[in-house]
Amino acid sequence: MRAFITLVAAICVALGAQSPQERIQSLLDSKKIPAKVVSTQDLGHNLRAVVVEHTQNGERIMLFSSSDGAVLFNVGELMWSEDNAFLGKLERISTEFEKAQKARVDSAALELFNTHKDAVMSFKAKKPTTNTLYIISDPMCPYCLKELENLPSRLESSNVKMLVVGFLGEDSLKKASEILSQKSSDERKNLALLQKIYDKNYKPKDTKNPKVLEISQAVAQAGVHSVPYLIESK
């Protein structure tokens, strides 16, 4: 009996010795959530900022937990407090997380420009420069059309490389397929091609290139979920 009591006491001490990060990981594991805890930071007021990473696709999100790691939750965009120091710390941590996320996604997306060189539209700046703007764009996206209209001004100070995806439905895939099948090494012809097919009144041909779907899926897996997505490189 005494040995059993000693064993139970030892287990209780071991469980109690878990760090907040370990306890959060145990909570995720118990719920069979495929994620690992990357980091936690104390916020005060018995709260922690917690960064978790999906073990399958590598995406990261920031959540909140109780200080002991026993409760994990997401509060969305809204949080009110009269403690300005707390709000300042939260803003700093959130900004650092967003910058780190952007850097991770940028790195993964740039790899795709190398992997799919044959699908990239390249435009040289008016004057020699090492600056390059990488754009991931969808022909059915109105904001992408505006970005395309800004291309001449972009080329004043930077080279531009564009990768066209089909994120926004069947017409996106069809338009992107047309662009991929008709692109050439002539920058002027490629710009005219983009302007024609990006026009909101243009009706795409009923054709879909499997390469476009492959690129679109790879871009999404890299963490790009909205377009236009811009990466500036020097």
Please characterize this protein's 3D structure:
The structure is a single chain. This protein is of the alpha+beta class and 234 residues long. The chain has 2 domains: 19-77, Nuclear Transport Factor 2, Chain: A (Roll), CATH 3.10.450.520; 117-233, Glutaredoxin (3-Layer(aba) Sandwich), CATH 3.40.30. Helix content is 46%, strand content 21%. The protein has 8 helices and 8 strands; from the N terminus they run ααββββαββααβαααβ. It has helices at residues 2-16, 20-30, 84-115, 142-149, 151-154, 170-182, 187-198, 210-221, and strands at 35-44, 47-54, 60-66, 72-73, 120-123, 132-137, 159-164, 229-233. The chain has a 4-stranded antiparallel beta sheet, with helices on both faces. A 4-stranded mixed beta sheet has the order 5-7-6-8. β3 and β4 form a beta hairpin. α6 packs antiparallel against α7 and α6 packs across α8 (210-221). The radius of gyration is 24 Å and the shape is elongated. The chain starts with a helix and ends with a strand. Mean pLDDT is 90; it is low at 1-15.
Total of domains: 2
Class inferred from helices and paired strands: alpha+beta
Count, helices: 8
Number of strands: 8
What's the arrangement of secondary structure elements?
Blueprint: H1 2-16, H2 20-30, E1 35-44, E2 47-54, E3 60-66, E4 72-73, H3 84-115, E5 120-123, E6 132-137, H4 142-149, H5 151-154, E7 159-164, H6 170-182, H7 187-198, H8 210-221, E8 229-233
Parallel strand pairs: 6-7
Antiparallel strand pairs: 1-2, 2-3, 3-4, 5-7, 6-8
